[in-house]
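Repro:
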Amino acid sequence: MQSEALRGSGLLPAAARAEMINRLRRQGILRQDVLATMEKLPRHLFVDEAMANHAYSDMSLPIGFSQTISQPYIVARMTEVMLNQNVKLSKILEIGTGCGYQTMVLSKFADKVFTVERIKGLLDKTRQRFRDFSVNNIRNKFDDGMPGWDAYAPYDGIIVTAAAPELPQALARQLKIGGVMVLPIQARNKQILCRVERNQEGVHIEQLEPVQFVPLLNGVIK
């Protein structure tokens, strides 16, 4: 059904993905492995049918529950920054599973991805999507993402897909020495995408670029 919607827009999924990848290159995404992963992944299957013809456009899209799927550039950028010269990581933590698109991208670069979602209805839909794709290296749970997932820490990389009011210390503690966390942080009236690297002395925060995400909130929604 969603592929038919794309055909109705005059652009087949494979052609739409190729066009998206060319745009990502122009936007400065350098890692060929990230680009190749996103070119193979059918993004239109992660949004509602009504949004399918916009799936490969340079925009975020609603996925229900007042949440969004990030624009392709942001997914590629956060993944590229978090990998930090590595080809593959052992363990990645994602806070904010959403529709699972970023999770699926991450699953190609890690032995295990641990992902936490605070909205049960959204996670239920995404769990079915993971089953449909037959992925076996993603572990997910319904919970408040603020405390992270301490049982499997430390992580080589952490991605937070919602804007935090400040650096979440619980997540920083779950990052291994030399590991990288990528997250948006609210700075006065704007959000800044940040790269956080943990070393022996603590954490170093590097500001990257302005972004726009939904806020990182406490608690769960059943």
